[in-house]
Every structure is written in structure tokens, then in C-alpha cells.
Give the backbone structure.
Amino acid sequence: MKKNFHLSILYFFVLLQAAGQSQVINDSIKESLFNETGLLQHIKTLSSDAFEGRQTGTVGGIKAREYIIEQFQSLQFLPLTENYEQLFSLHKKGKVYKGSNILGCIKGTILPDTYIVISAHYDHEGIKNGLIYNGADDDASGVCALFSFAEYFKKYPPKHSVILAAFDAEELGLQGSKYFVNNSIIPLDKIMLDINMDMISRSDKNELFVVGTTYNDTLKNVILNLKQPQKIKLSIGHDGKDGLENWTYSSDQGSFQMKNIPFLYFGVEDHKDYHQPTDDYENIQPGFYIEAVKAIMAVFEKIDQLQI
């Protein structure tokens, strides 16, 4: 009996240790939402001089399109259009710009006819006075986060259908996203929400803002009840209600707001390199960037459980 008692105790601790190891493994899997090294390599590449500042319709802008399509294809993220592209043109200050939105899609496992758009703009300022405006934070950071979302969905398929949208011509007045909502491939009443990411890779205050909750109580409750990230601060603000600059129409989420489609916009406050030729990869904050993408994914997880 005494021997059996000791064996039982030993067996209990073996099970306890195994359970602990299992939890560690599960936590490790959950932490590995995407390839963090790959995320940093993507932003380094997309914000390099080789893309010449990614201005709409230029050689560098077209090269950026091709790069985004290549990544979607390599991640087996299916096109929303025949070849991922939604072509458009616009006239501004006597110049014609030829742009293209890049659109990928994954069907939801439970609500395939309801869509969440996750967006970022890939265009930037191009070359001015011989200087390349690489736009690492603005907005290679958001675009490369789209690739991480594509990785994430391979591991954790969404309940709603999701469109990953890399919009063009944001710097020309949100023209790509305006074209998307005015010529929607998906009926607008089927789009539940836009999650837009524009400038998410650096903050001296370690703070990522989320805008849009003032217009939707359900979204506000999601953010208020979300467990705060441990390594960065996620703050509600810049929505016209707190005395700070109103960012509602400052990026592509504004096009959705104009169509009364709920949105959440994630971004940081302007920094000294905003719209300067010094917005380079070397000036992003890699640790903050990785945690920002994880925080946005955590918000998506909560929203994917809802019907707004």
C-alpha cells in the first residue's frame, strides 16, 4: 500500500508536469501568430530605395504592387479579383495617375457572406528634389502587417470572410479606398467593418491609438473590455471627442465612414520623420511594431466573434 501510494504521488506529478508542458506548448503556439522576423524583413524591403518611394503609377509604385501580389500568392491568400488588382485612374492638378488596389480574400468558416476589410495603403510620396521618401512607417508598416494577417489566417481561419486590402493613392486624397467603396466588388451592406492600419511601427510613448469607437458602442465595448497588451499601450482617442486632432478622415478608414461602415483605425501620433525622406526602416522600433501587430490581431479575434 505504501509503495502504491508513492507510485500514485509520482504519477500525479508526472501528469502535472505534462499538463504544464502542454500549457507552455499551447502558449508558445499562440504567441507564434506570425513570423516576426519575416515581418521586419518585409518592411525593410518595401521601404528600401529600390521602390523609389512607391508613388502611385510610378515604376516604384508598380514594383510595390507586384511585391504585394507575390506575397499574397506565396501565402496562398486568394485574390478577390481575377489577378488581385482593382485598377483605377484619377486626375489631380492636371496630371493623370493610374492606380491599383490589391485585394485578397479568405472565406469565413461560419459567416462567409459577411466581410471584414483589413486595410493599409502602399503608396507614398515618391521622389522629391532627388530625395527618396521611403515611407517605412507611412505606410509600409501597415502593408507588411497585412502579410502577417495572411499568415495568421492560415493557422486560425476567421469566422467572417476577410478582405486584405492594400490601397493605392491614399496620399492623393484616399483615392484608392474611395474607389473601392464606390465600385465595391462586395455589396457594401455585406461589409461589417474596416480595420485600417496606417503608421504602426514606432512610438516614443509606446502608445498605439485606436480610432472609431465613438461611432459604434459595440466596438467601444470590445476595446474597453480587451485585456491591455503588456508591452505597449492601446489607447482610445483622436476621434473628435477628446480635444486631440480628429483622425476620422485622416486615412483610408474615412472612405468607409463616409459610407456609414464602422471602422477601427490603428496608428501612432506624428513623429519627426512623418512625410520626410528620413522615414526609413532604420527609424522604426521593431519591438513596438511586432507588439502593435499582435495587439491589432487581438482586437480582430474579439470582433470576429461578433455581428456588428
In short: The two ends are 61 Å apart (CA to CA). The longest strand covers residues 95-106. DSSP finds eight helices and eleven strands in the chain.
